[in-house]
Amino acid sequence: MTTTPTSREEDQALVDAVLNGSKGAFERLVIQYQKLCWHVIYRMVRHAEDTQDLCQEAFLRMHQYLHQYRYESALKSWVAQVAYSVAKRHLERKRIPLSEPSADSEGLSPLDRVSDDFDMEAAGIDSQAAGFLHEAIDRLPPLQRTILTLYHLDEMPIAEVAMITGLAEGTIKSHLFRSRKQLRDTLNDRMGVAA
Amino acid sequence: MNVEEREWQAQEAAMRRGRSGSDGQKLDTLSASYLSIVHAARQPIDVQLPVDFASRIALLAGERPHTVVIESRFERRMLIALIGLLGVAGLAAAMFYGGNWLMPSIKQLGQIGKPSLSLLMSLIACLGLSAIWQPLRRFVPIISGRGF
């Protein structure tokens, strides 16, 4: 898990402290959620320097708009929602498509673009698979990568992922299903070829 | 259970195994085929933020005009002022009209039992709007306050 689960009371106390200008309160909020913010933004933009700048922008926005947070969801989800929104806007500015449901412009699935020079012989079969999978996840479209990370690494329920991304729960399930199946099938094909 | 549903259940079983980390329950072949995917998706991501990131952001945020607190305090003060004004107005009305306002008010309340068609239509419109408000918020960012 990225962050330790916090109760609604803890969220409220922290938000109140920030809104009342208590010393160190906002710094505490940043420390608590910087890892989650990095996960969301890095998975979206895949560039460390950009992610750092966007994390800064996201937290400054949180500071500016914290009074709009109405406790309808966990603070963690609201933070992820702001981070997602900042990263999404960045990708839109750069005209990078958020999601490629089937194939890209070259007619290839994102997973087909995983480099062929990955050294399958150099390592054991498990680390081969792990290395290939990391590369394959990295090559997924931004939205699918982020959904996969929020669901598996940050262990967020589907409803929360839907809230963060502003998509319907069915759409999240569909993305998860297709990404995982695609990864598994590509891995099977690749490892089968290697064997 | 159709093929896709079985595949989804297998993915979810692998996900649960990944989260629990236990080897207790035996997974079927299909679920087991997703374990490596789950493990890869759960691999921690290297967070490359400087150690003083939080303090730097807090400093930056402090330098910017804190409209949030001002607005929040402003809202709170306005709320207190309006509640006070309502109390004073109520008291003044009671003193000015004495008990004369009581009977007409009771009469008005009696009318609620016999609503007109337009009132009923308005009520239905209000309930309808409230019902579609939540689903609408999901699709229209500006309504849900996602304008950050």
General description of the model:
The complex is a heterodimer of chains A (195) and B (148). Chain A contains 8 helices and no strands. Chain A has 195 residues and is mostly helical. Chain A has helices at 8-19, 25-45, 48-65, 75-93, 125-138, 142-153, 158-165, 169-194. In chain A, helix 1 crosses helix 2 (25-45) and helix 7 packs across helix 8 (169-194). Helix content of chain A is 67%, strand content 0%. Chain B is mostly helical and 148 residues long.
Measured between the Cα atoms of the first and last residue of chain A, the distance is: 35 Å
Assembly context of the chains: heterodimer
Radius of gyration of chain A, CA atoms, in whole angstroms: 19 Å
Q: How large, in whole angstroms, is the Cα Rg of chain B? A: 30 Å
**SS content category of chain B:** mainly alpha
- The counted number of beta strands of chain A is 0
Structural class category of chain A: mainly alpha
- The number of helices of chain B is 7
The first-to-last residue Cα distance of chain B is 43 Å
Low-confidence stretches of chain B: 141-145
Describe the biggest sheet of chain A? none
SS element count, helices of chain A? 8
Cα shape of chain A = elongated
Question: Which whole number gives the mean pLDDT of chain A?
Answer: 84
Tally of DSSP β-strands of chain B: 0
Order of helices and strands of chain A: HHHHHHHH
- Please give the most extensive interface between any two protein chains, plus how many residues each contributes: A-B, 59 and 46 residues
Mean pLDDT level of chain B: 80
Helix content of chain B: over 70%
Proportion of beta-strand residues of chain A: under 5%
Feature tags:
A: 195 residues, mainly alpha, B: 148 residues
